Description:
This protein is 70% helix and 4% strand. It has 106 residues and is mainly alpha-helical.
Amino acid sequence: TVLLSEYATIGPVPLALLGAGYYLFLLIVALMYLDTRRIKLMKLFAAIVTLGLAVSLYFLYLQLFVINALCFYCMLSLSFTAVLFVLGVVVYRLAPPEDQELSRSV
C-alpha cells in the first residue's frame, strides 16, 4: 500500500518523519508569532502552509493515479493542511503592513 510503496521515503528518510517535522516547524512558528506578534512570522507560516498544501496535493495525485491506493493518515494531513491554508489566507489578508507590528494585549 501507500506506506510501503517506493514513494513512502526520500532516500532513507520516511515521508512521515518529514511530515512530523513540517507540523513541528509550524507549531514553533505559530508559538513564536503568539509571543512576538511579528507579522513576518505570520507570513512565514502562511508561506510554509502553502508549500505544504502543494506537496500534499502532489502526494494525493501519486496516491490516486500512480499507487492506486489511499492512505488515511495522508488524507488526514491533507485535510488539516487545507484548513491551515484557508486560515492562513484569511489571516494574511487581514494582516497590517509589515512596518506595523500587532500590539500585544495582556
